[in-house]
Design brief:
174 residues, mainly alpha, two-stranded parallel sheet, two-stranded antiparallel sheet, 7 helices, globular
Length: 174
C-alpha cells in the first residue's frame, strides 16, 4: 500500500489547536519520523503475504517506464527515489524515533510524544476508484509500526462520509 503523511494535520480544528495537536503536526513534518515509518515497513513481507511474491520492495514512485526516467539522468533519479529509505531496517527506525524524542515513558511498549503525551498514529484506509484498497496489507503495516513502538489504528473509511469529512474538510487525517 502507498501511505502518505498529511503534514498539515490540524486535528480538525485549525483555529483551536492544542499544544499536543501542534506537537503531532510537527512530528508528522519531521523527516526523521517519516523515514523511521518508512524503514519500519517490511515491504518484502507485504509482497509475499498479500501479493503472492509478485512485486518489488521499493518506495513509492511512478513507473520506471515513464518518459521522466528515459535518460541516464532520469534512470538515476528513479533509482534514488525507488530505494530511498525503502530497505527494511527496524533498528534504524528505532534509532530515528529515539532521536526525535519519541520514547516509551510508561513502559507499555509504545512510544509517547517528546512531551511525554500519548501518541497514536491513525491511518485512514481509503478507496481507489471507489473500491477498497487491498486491505490485507494493513494489519501488517500496523504490526510493523507497533514493533518499533508506534501505537497504530487502521480505519477503513472507503465509501463513508468520513472520506471527505476527515480528509477534505477538517484536516484530521494524519
Amino acid at each position: 500500500p502507498g501511505l502518505m503523511v498529511n503534514m498539515d494535520y490540524t486535528a480538525g480544528h485549525m483555529d483551536e489547536m492544542t499544544d499536543v495537536d501542534i506537537e503531532i503536526r510537527d512530528l508528522l513534518r519531521n523527516k526523521l519520523f517519516r523515514r523511521a515509518v518508512s524503514v519500519a515497513m517490511d515491504r518484502q513481507k507485504v509482497i509475499d503475504v498479500v501479493w503472492d511474491g509478485v512485486g518489488t520492495p521499493q518506495n513509492w514512485t511512478i513507473s520506471p517506464q515513464s518518459w521522466h526516467f528515459a535518460t541516464e539522468e532520469g534512470k538515476q533519479v528513479f533509482e534514488e527515489w525507488a530505494w530511498s529509505y525503502a530497505e527494511y531496517d527496524p533498528d534504524q527506525a528505532i534509532a530515528w524515533l529515539d532521536e526525535v524524542g519519541m520514547v516509551d515513558v510508561d513502559g507499555d511498549g509504545m512510544r509517547e510524544l517528546p512531551s511525554g503525551e500519548p501518541f497514536e498514529l491513525i491511518i485512514d484506509e481509503t478507496c481507489w476508484a471507489g473500491q477498497p484498497i487491498e486491505d490485507r496489507a494493513m494489519p501488517l503495516v500496523e504490526e510493523f509500526l507497533e514493533d518499533v513502538g508506534i501505537s497504530t489504528t487502521i480505519n477503513m473509511i472507503c465509501n463513508t462520509p468520513d472520506v471527505s469529512i476527515r480528509h477534505e474538510q477538517t484536516g484530521e487525517m494524519m
